[in-house]
Amino acid sequence: MSLKGKKQNFKITRGEGEDSSMQDYEIELDEGMVVLDCVHRIQYEQEPDLAVRWNCKAGKCGSCSAEINGRPRLMCMTRMSDVVQEVDEGEPIDIRPMQTFPHIKDLVTDVSWNYDVAQKIKPINGPEEMNWEFNQMEADRVQHFRECIECFLCVNTCHVLRDHELFDDFAGPRNLVRLAQYEMHPLDLEDRIPEIKKEFGVEYCNITRCCTEVCPAGIQITDDAIIQLKERVVDRYYDPLQRIWRTLTRQKVRY
Amino acid sequence: MAEDFKKYEYDVIVIGAGGAGLRAAIEAARSGAKTAIITKSLLGKAHTVMAEGGCAAALQNADPRDGWKVHFHDTMKGSKWLANWQMAEYHAKEAPDRVRELEQWGAVFDRTNKNLINQRNFGGHTFPRLAHVGDATGLEIIRTLQERGIHEGIDIFMEYTVRHLLKEGDRVTGCVAYTRVDGDFHAFSAKSVVLATGGITRVWSVCSGSWEYTGDGHALALWSGAELRDMEFVQFHPTGMVWPPSVRGILVTEGVRGEGGRLTNSDGVRFMFDYVPEMFAGDHAETIEESDQWVEEVVSGKLATVRRPPELLTRDVVAKAINSEVKAGRGSPHGGAFLDISHRGEEAILKKLPSMHHQFKELAGVDISKEPMEVGPTAHYVMGGVLVDAETQESTVPGLFACGEVASGLHGANRLGGNSLSDLIVFGKRAGEFAAKRAKDLAQPVIDETQVQQAIEVMLEPFGNKGGENPGLIYDELRDMMQAKVGIIRTKEELDEAIEDLKNFESRRLASYPGSSRKYNSGWHQALDLKNMVDISYAATLAALTREESRGGHTRDDFPVPDDEYWGKTLNIIYMEDGEIKIRQDPVIEMREDLQDAIKEVKQMIAERAAEAGGGN
Predict the structure, then answer these.
(1) Residue B484 contacts residue B495 (beta carbons within 8 Å)
(2) In the sheet that A21-28 helps form, which strands lie side by side, from edge to edge?
(3) Nearest CA to CA, how far is B94 from chain A (Å)?
């Protein structure tokens, strides 16, 4: 279906924090547009100071996260041809900023919490000699996690944060993926399990898989990262045989 | 009335947080300098994330016949012999250790069957040389540097935009920035400033660049008295998306061709066989059979015994070939060429080119494992930039350093794919190291309030233009103009027109109005970006007008052949004098003798291989 020439209405968050409201706009569409193209068109033609955060417009940088018709996604990878089918003819397309983070202005939010948590995660700790050796199967496990573009849509969707606001106790899905990437790195020597349990609160996640559902990079956040970390925590802290073995041998458990 | 601003003091300020900026900051901090990064975006979002194919380094993991001399030769030849040979030497020698170091910082590159970093083939590289992670190598590198960088004690100012470099006498002593979030002003005193701001490709409407690519560093350098070189050389990457219009220009990695992708025209002909330039004659496969055999050998992990497909000629050659096919009426339905990788099968494509598969599926509704892509040239990289010292990366202005795309010299008239990621880490490290060294003996510069207030005044000018044009419109029109008149094929007539048009854009820019709020105001940022874009477009146009020949990333329809006698040995240098952008020519310095010998050695090796391959068929 060609969208060229079609008039389309939008409702977009405008303003700052509690003073913001939904404003109406209308533009004419072109072939193959994505939502971010429409926001730009509104900014160029009607509202020069419309705030929108974006960088690559190719789904690689994760800057333009928003809630489009109530669904968290990247504006640059959401095609208008799909979005128009979600609303009735003549009805506006609804674009709001991510709701879990403090609002700055219009479509922009303050995502610095994610960076603060990342700062607390210890860097990789591997051999000092160069030319590390590990095979592709070992790489595969970790590479998957490293496809994360830090759009923070998973964090925005996680109800531990969105509804329960446990920002001080829980690292959020993005940073749990980062922890998993180190924890499962074939040559990382750091023992991360105690902090994954305590400081980063992996047990708060109750596996509703909302984060996985919205991930534009298709990372199996829940199954491949969080559940794996949970299992490692359980093995360490709750497996009675392991506990006895550890007490007897005073050994650290290796995985 | 004087505006409030905050003051800061550092030894080293790095402007930009892409691969080069992060690498420079890490090195400066590790050398003991009090270091800060100022970035226009959030950390980890810079244009480096968009690099796809890989990072070139002669690791010798995929083919033991490689080595620094071959990489050096390939870089010089790809540059059409205009690269700074000393930079090319440092680059070829140091890239392997910089890549191995990334691995120690957490980068997880694809592996060989001997458990080491794997390497893929790319245009212009004699051997498989690019360390890679599928087709998302840039993301891997920036994330690795980011995750290392945050533990080095570097202060990071996110969403701050630098608009002015402070000077004391002839040295750079700091900078002035505004914040996107609230529009506040900040002045930084610094003993050394490192520009790592990336490129300028947003000045073309069909480009693969992110919004940041507005030439900030190029302009800051020019305004502060530094010199630029090679500004006429712009790399139009041969394969950008062409359809639908809103995604036109988005990059299609050269990795597609490295993995065996075939370029065909509307007649189904693999046209690249007809476009092998004289300087590459004999280096590439001459038949489809030879090409296919090469692909079969390299994808199964064997050493290639025949020559590579002509699709892997350097980017300038392939881009012009596609352009010619389209002009001759043999283009694809939306004005490009067909690029087909479907013969490699779905499994291999999902493993080696996952983001290409995703990108075409999501944005164009094309399944590249079953059907060909449509591709065409897109403005991708500027070889030109700040003229720097090869060893230290210091510009012609003391205290001002540059590295990565904003610097110039490594790539000459044409950059080889994969040489930009290695450029970032090799010269990022050098810039950081020497910026810190430079800072050691200096006292903390005093911030000159008058200069700061003047810079703030300039930044606030757009708010005084009530009723003026929306800067976004000017921005778009400027890009369309540059695309039309200073694009892949150039003529004197159009370049002259562009020079005139730019004057007009300059006056429109001065009268544009972004609305009243300083808080996260996209229009205000565009109004300010336009100042760099106009000046840098002017520099690129002036250099293009002056170079009356065709070479690498600069093609003149009215001077279609290379002029080796004069322009093959001459560089265009851009500088600013009395507020006016000017140009002069400098001779290329003759290559050191031992490096000339290295080139001869490699040439002979390549000739022997070609003879063997030719005889073997």
Answers:
(1) no
(2) A21-28, A7-14, A93-96, A65-68, A71-74
(3) 14
Residue A234, chain B, CB below 8 Å: the answer is no
Per-position b or e across B364-398, b if 16+ CB within 10 A of its CB: bebebbeebbbbbbbbbbbbbbbbbbbebbbbbbe
Beta strand pairing call for A7-14 and A93-96: parallel
* Per-residue pLDDT tens over the stretch B374-390: 999 999 999 999 999 99
Give the sign of the dihedral formed by CA B131, CA B135, CA B138, CA B142: negative
The model's pLDDT over B1-51, given as tens digits with 9 standing for 90+, comes to 689 999 999 999 999 999 999 999 999 999 999 999 999 999 999 999 999
Site of tokens 């400027």: B478
Residues A94 and A70 sit within 8 Å (Cβ to Cβ) = yes
Cβ atoms of A97 and A103 closer than 8 Å? yes
Residue where the block lists tokens 């609230």:
B182
Give dist(CA A213, CA A230) in Å, integer.
19
Residues of B recognised as catalytic: 315
Q: Chain A, 18-57: which have a CB under 8 Å from a chain B CB?
A: 30-34, 37, 40, 43-45, 47-57
SS3 B537: helix
pTM score of the predicted model: 0.95
User: B324: burial class by Cβ within 10 Å (0-12, 13-18, 19+)?
Assistant: middle
Answer yes or no: are the C-beta atoms of B474 and B508 closer than 8 Å: yes
- Under a CB-based contact definition with an 8 Å cutoff, are residues B581 and B542 in contact? yes
> A132 vs B103: CB contact, 8 Å cut-off?
yes
Token pair recorded at residue B190? 């610094």
Our CA angle for B493, B213, B100, nearest 5°, is: 125
The per-residue pLDDT for range B230-263, each reduced to its tens digit, is 999 999 999 999 998 888 999 999 999 999 999 9
Residue appearing with tokens 């399990």:
A193
Least CA distance to A108: which residue of chain B? Answer: B520
Beta-bridge partners for B581: B576
